[in-house]
Amino acid sequence: MKDRQPPVIEARHLRKVFGDFTAVDDISFRLHRGECLGLLGPNGAGKTSTIRMVYGFSPMSAGSLRVFGLDVTTRWRSIKARIGVCHQENNLDPDLSVLENLVVFAGYFSIPRKVAKERAEKLLRFMSLDQRQDEKVTNLSGGMMRRLVLARALINEPELLILDEPTTGLDPQSRHQVWEKLDQLRAEGLSILLTTHYMEEASSLCDRLVIIDHGKILVQGKPKELIRQHAGRDVIEVFNPTNKLLRFVESSRLMHDNLPRRLIIYGQENDGIFERLGEHYCAENCIRRMATLEDVFLRLTGRDLRE
Amino acid sequence: MNLLAGRDVTWRFMRVWQRNFIVYRRIWKINFLPPILEPLFYLLAFGLGFGSLVGKIVYQGREIQYVAFIAPALLSVNMMYNAFFENTYASFVRMYYQKTFDAIMATPLSLREVILGEIAWGATKSLMATAVMLGVVSAFGLVAYPHGLLILPLSFLAGVAFGAVGMVFTGITPTIDMFNLPVFLFITPMFLFSGTFFPLNDLPTWAQKVAAAFPLTHLVTVTRGLCLGIMSRDYLYGIFYLIVFSLLWIPLALKAMERRLIR
Fold first, then answer.
1. I need a surface site. Which of A82, A92, B60, B201 has the fewest CB within 10 A?
2. Is B105 part of the contact surface with chain A (CB cutoff 8 Å)?
């Protein structure tokens, strides 16, 4: 990471204001070459607003933003030529066939038709869609459409791939297939910026995470480090905890969340606390498990519904 | 700060045109039917039916058949419809339902290029429909040549003018149903009162003045002159009007779409 190349994305004090609503409030982050960075946050946290500024779709209200070392406000055209974008909503062209979707899209990048066709066929094979190339887009399943959107985002051989909730709404099989493809692309050295609210997606795909809420960065770091810092190593969940247990937890200053009818206790490695809990306070109403990113997420962003 | 300020319009807008052309080619047979059938129906109805009631009329000192009077109007209305409906309903579907513009804006194109490409496409549809219709009308001997050939570039210009207006409505309409409003308030009155079905000099002066504000009035006048083989300096005024009209409405269309889509 000590190469002289500038970071792929360098966002400083980014702000986005819609009327009197601040969607992105002073966000700074970097994405290094070959890295997969995840923006994680509940609905309305400012994830999409942030990445829309990165790909030059929406003007920022304040701050500075450089992609490939170029300023997005002035060099947006060169930047957009070098990135691939997967939007949250499916915006494939329903008037065109599967293959045409890629070839026409390549036209927007001024890629010669012959090259475009070769690349399109290669990408369809990569995404296991080559059997469907002449079909109408509307005949594809949700998972196939997503893979086609992904193929389309790769048609200009981008150096940076931006994915806005790439697997939202997919069934588990399709989701895993998309992850597999993304993992392959990551292994080939492609830089990836993605937003998600699937913890599994974030922890398995991303090298680094930025958790944001209400337009602000709460924490950033590697998934494992975040878990260790904010949820410890192991977690005990106690259903209908006794008052005795609650008092014990309070008095021994354990990191915990007291929810209605459920107590979650976060523990560090080898602190022996779980053994004591198990012996004295727990019957079959206790579950011990590894701490996950979901624990971190819920601890940081709270448990209120975001609708 | 404006992402789209400055040097953001290049020939790349033709890529959007190209996309629409590829789609059009797939269903060209259906696209070609209206400009063939519509003049046939109108010429039958007005030529054989209505024309026998009206008989001959005097236009610019010449006595002409009623069909010869309305054939140029049909061509002009066809130009207006093709461009206006392409850049309202069809563009709205691409923008709003298909999110085609969103997808394109993730590529090196600017929103302005997308919109200009759409307007250029609307004008091209006007040109193609006019070419077909001109063939049909010519078969009835209602077009004087070579003057009549100038109707083709004219149809493109008219397409830009009406397409740009359509695009403004696309930029501001909340829903697709609301297009009824400009159709009833703008398109239908023009269709009826632009010297299309009766000469304007039969109208009271105030009505003539209102009609002179309609772009369709000028288009009909020029097209009619070309069909009848009358070359007149007055037509330059009509063409000038359409150019100025376009130059006013194109920036409005860009502004309206920017307001709508750049967030």
1. B201
2. yes
Residues of chain A with pLDDT under 50: 1
d(CA A188, CA A182): 10
- Which positions of chain B have pLDDT values less than 50? 1-6
CA distance B145 to chain A (A): 39
Give A276-286 pLDDT, tens digit per residue: 777 777 767 78
Fold of the domain built from segment(s) A9-227: Rossmann fold (3.40.50)
Subunit contact A105:B105, Cβ cutoff 8 A: no
Give the domain A233-290 fold: Alpha-Beta Plaits (3.30.70)
Domain range for residue B248? 13-261
Q: Is the peptide bond before B146 cis (omega within 30 degrees of 0)?
A: yes
A24, A108, A134: best mutation site toward chain B, by most B Cβ within 10 Å?
A: A108
User: A interface mutation test: which of B1, B3, B8, B258 has the most A CBs within 10 A?
Assistant: B3
Phi-psi sector, B55: left (phi>0), alpha (psi -120 to 50), beta: left
Q: How far apart, in whole angstroms, are the C-alpha atoms of residue A241 and residue B237? A: 88
CB-based contact A84:A147 (threshold 8 Å): no
pLDDT at A302: 80
Chain B residues with CB under 8 Å of A87 CB are 99, 102-103, 106
Contact B106 A87 (CB under 8 A): yes
Of A73, A95, A110, the CB nearest to B3: A73
Are A110 and B104 within 8 A, CB to CB? Answer: no
Domain ranges of chain A: 9-227, 233-290
Residue A43 per-residue DSSP state: T
Residue B2's pLDDT is 43
- Residue B7, domain member (yes or no): no
Beta-carbon pairs below 8 A across chains A and B: 74
Q: Which residues neighbour A225 within 8 Å (Cβ) at sequence distance 6 or greater?
A: none
